[in-house]
Each structure stands twice: as structure tokens, then as C-alpha cells.
From TrEMBL:
<dbReference type="Pfam" id="PF01641">
    <property type="entry name" value="SelR"/>
</dbReference>
<dbReference type="InterPro" id="IPR028427">
    <property type="entry name" value="Met_Sox_Rdtase_MsrB"/>
</dbReference>
<keyword id="KW-0813">Transport</keyword>
<keyword id="KW-0862">Zinc</keyword>
<protein>
    <recommendedName>
        <fullName>Peptide-methionine (R)-S-oxide reductase</fullName>
        <ecNumber>1.8.4.12</ecNumber>
    </recommendedName>
</protein>
<feature type="domain" description="MsrB">
    <location>
        <begin position="39"/>
        <end position="160"/>
    </location>
</feature>
<keyword id="KW-0249">Electron transport</keyword>
<comment type="similarity">
    <text>Belongs to the MsrB Met sulfoxide reductase family.</text>
</comment>
<comment type="function">
    <text>Catalyzes the reduction of methionine sulfoxide (MetSO) to methionine in proteins. Plays a protective role against oxidative stress by restoring activity to proteins that have been inactivated by methionine oxidation. MSRB family specifically reduces the MetSO R-enantiomer.</text>
</comment>
<dbReference type="GO" id="GO:0033743">
    <property type="term" value="F:peptide-methionine (R)-S-oxide reductase activity"/>
</dbReference>
<dbReference type="GO" id="GO:0006979">
    <property type="term" value="P:response to oxidative stress"/>
</dbReference>
<keyword id="KW-0479">Metal-binding</keyword>
<dbReference type="InterPro" id="IPR002579">
    <property type="entry name" value="Met_Sox_Rdtase_MsrB_dom"/>
</dbReference>
<keyword id="KW-0560">Oxidoreductase</keyword>
<keyword id="KW-0732">Signal</keyword>
<feature type="signal peptide">
    <location>
        <begin position="1"/>
        <end position="26"/>
    </location>
</feature>
<dbReference type="InterPro" id="IPR011057">
    <property type="entry name" value="Mss4-like_sf"/>
</dbReference>
Amino acid sequence: MEVLSEIKIITFSSLILLVELGLGLSNSSSMATSVVKSEEEWRAILSAEQFRILRNKGTEPKGTGEYDKFFEDGIYTCAGCGTPLYKSTTKFNSGCGWPAFFEGLPGAITRTPDPDGRRTEITCTACGGHLGHVFKGEGFKTPTDERHCVNSISVKFASQDNPSS
């Protein structure tokens, strides 16, 4: 059990190091995903709801996600592939009913304008998993004037106090 705790601490330390190094990923929205799985492989590792949202670009109902009103120190990772996406220090209460962040980790988020031009979709750069949408100019007092509106089910939280969370 003691060895397992040490492994968890090392793993969380490695996660923090990746975050501090900027993941080494490109900010290019044309960058190919590095985690490639078949539909069957995704279905085997994701719940039905995770698959609907991450792979089929769904949206969870407003106010139902576990991270909407959750504010602890740590890192939010992709629920599909585990890639670090957001520091908790970039999360804010927007009152929209979904977790809101003002910026992602460098190179972790890919932006793609929706076909209708009204919104910009955000996905995990590593696996292409749908996270939600990014909105600009809404008047929130954030350093970027952006709101990344993210489905809770698209992310997992890794606490600084409990790396196995």
C-alpha cells in the first residue's frame, strides 16, 4: 500500500510537470490527434453518457454536472484520454450551469468554429473529445475575456491533496 501511495504522488508530480512544461503540444487547430481509437474501443472505455458527449458532441443538461459548483485546487484532465486540460486556478463561477474556465493549458485545447459561425467548439487536442464551446466578450472579469463552457462529464479532476481522485 505504501508503494501505491508513492506511485500516486509520483504520477501527480509528473502531471504537474507536464502542465508546467506546457505539455509540449502545438497550439495549431490542425494538429492531428495523438490518441486514436476505434468507435468500439471508445465505447469499451467510456460510459454511454461520456461517449454521447465526448465522441458525438453532446451536451449534458444545465446544472447537472458534478464540477459546475466545484472549486478545489488541482488539474482537470480529459475524461477520454487523461490529457491535462485546465488548471483549477482558471476556473470561475459564470452562473451558466456548466464549469467555466478562462483558458486551457497551452496546446491542450483545439478550437473549431461551428458550421453556423455562432459558436466555437473546444475539443481535447490529444484525442479529439468534445469538451464544449468557448465564448468571448461576455463581460466576465477574466484575463482572457473568454468562457470555456465545459461539460463536467468531459473532464476528470485530479486533486493536489489526493492524486488518485
